[in-house]
Every structure is written in C-alpha cells, then in structure tokens.
Write a structure and sequence with these properties.
mainly alpha
C-alpha cells in the first residue's frame, strides 16, 4: 500500500468518527438540558385544548361550506370536544395542585 492510500483511509476513518460523534452527541448529552427543552404539562394541555377548539371551529366551517355531512360534523365535534374536555380537566387538576387548600 502506498502512503497516499493509507492517508486517504485514515482521513476517511477520522471523518466517519467525527460525523458519528456529532450525530450521537444529543443521545449522550446531559438529561437536564433535554428536560429544559421539553414543554411542561401545562403547555401540553393548553396546546391540546387550543387545537381541539380550533378543530371544532374548522369542522363547523367545513359543514357550512358543504364539505361535511351532519353525521361527520357530529362525530368530529364529539371527538374534539372530548379532547378539549380532557385538556380542561387536566388543567384544572394542575391548577388545583398549585393552590393551597381552601379553609
């Protein structure tokens, strides 16, 4: 083997190792840093409530435009209302957990 072949091989191996280290770094990073990036429970439930209510409005608009039947609207509305109610109940539980008990 010539010196150039060995040098290209070593350079390629180093490049592969650097790319592997960069790609795998988030998996071996500090867990507290990853936890800071994840949204909290309150934000998650707020987002679910907001998305469910928006979906209800969009389904009603689609029904008014003739894109949905009454059956489709009823089933979609029931599903999205259930999601919104689940989120509202969770938000109330979170709110109650942060408040002192009533006297």
């Amino acid at each position: 083997m010539s010196t150039v072949t060995v040098a290209v091989f070593v350079l390629g191996l180093v490049l592969i190792l650097v790319v592997a280290a960069v790609v795998s770094a988030p998996f071996f990073g500090a867990p507290d840093r990853l936890a800071d990036q994840a949204p909290g429970d309150r934000e998650r439930w707020e987002r679910q409530k907001r998305q469910a209510l928006l979906a209800i409005r969009e389904a009603e608009l689609d029904f008014q435009m003739g894109k949905l039947t009454a059956e489709d609207l009823a089933s979609m509305r029931a599903r999205f209302e259930a999601q919104a109610m689940e989120a509202i109940a969770a938000l109330e539980r979170l709110g109650a957990a942060g408040r002192p008990p009533r006297a």
